[in-house]
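Quick question, first post here. What does this chain look like in 3D?
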Amino acid sequence: MADLGKIDRTFFDEYIHPNLGAERDDVVLWPNHGVDFGAIDVNGTAVVMATDPVFLLPSLGYERAAWFAFHILLSDVAVSGLPPTHLSVDFNLPPEITNEEFERVWTTFDEEARKLDVSVVTGHTARYEGCSYPMVGGATTLAVGAHENVVRPDGATVGDRVVITKGPAIEATGLLSYQFEEYLRAELSEETVSAAQSRFYDMSPVRDALTAAAAGPVTAMHDATECGIHGGLYELARAGDVGIEFTPEAVPRLPGVMAVCEAFEIDPWAAISEGTLIATVDPSGVDDVLAALEREEIPAADVGRVTDGSGVVTDGDRIEHPRVDPYWGAVAAMSEEVDE
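> Answer (accepted):
Ran it through. C-alpha cells below.
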C-alpha cells in the first residue's frame, strides 16, 4: 500500500478483489481498481453508486470547503452519464467543530443538492475523539436511470477520440493556492495567485460529465483525481483493455496551474485533478461533445485516440501510472515547514 493516497493495483488485486462478499446476479458492474462506480439492476432499472470520503478543509472556509466536499461525492457517479439522484452521508466530526461551523457545512450541502435535484435519504452525524480534518466521514451517492444511458468505464473502443476538459492539476492548484496562499504570494505575482485561486470552482466534473454524455456517443468517462491526467488515462485504458495515444500540447492549460506546480515542484500531469474529465467519444460525436462543452463554457479539446494494445503513449514514449500523487507530498512538506 502507498504511504499516502489511494491503494495501488497490486494491493487491490491481492487484498480487496478476492473478498467482495456474495456473488449476486443483480450486480452488473463490480469493483475494479481505477473504476469510479459500481452498478446494480433493480427490476430492469440501473442503480449506479459510488462511495468517497467526506473531505473537509476548514482552511478553505467552511462554505467553500463544503462545496468541494459535496462535489467530490457526486463526481464518481456523474461519470456514469446518469445525473446523481440520492445521497447518504456519514459525518464523523472532530470534537472542536462548532454547531455554527457544521451549520455552514450542511446548509451548503443542502443548497448544492437542491441545485442538482439530489435528495439526502439517510446518514449519521456525530463528534468523536480521534477524528480529524480533512477526512471527517464518508458518503455514498446513487444515480437511477436506464441501463442504456449508463456510460460504462470499460467502454472505450479502438478508434474513439479522447476528450479532456480543463487540463492538468486543477485540484492541486485550487487547493494549494488557498492552503499555502502566503507562500505563493511571496513566490508569484498577485495576478498569478488570483488566477490559481480561480481554479477552485473548476474542481467539479459533474457538469462536464453530464454535458458530454447528453451531447454525443460517449463510450467511457473517468475523473482525473489522484495521479491526475496520466493516472486517469492509464486507468481508462486498462479498464477498456485498450491503448491510448495522446498529445499533451493539445490539452487545455488553465491560468495559474503551471506556475503553482512549478512553485511546489510537482508534476502537473501526475497531480490530483478533481474536475478534469477524461472521456472517450465515438468519432461521429466529437464535434457535438466539444460544442456542448463550449456552450457551457467548459474548456475542452480532442487530444488523442484509442488504439489497439495497452497503456498510454505520447510522442512514441509509454507513460506508466504515477502510483503516488505528488500533491500529498507537497502538502506534507509545506505543512512541516509552516510548523517549524
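Residues 167 and 252 are 5 Å apart (CA to CA).
The chain has two domains: 9-149, 161-339.
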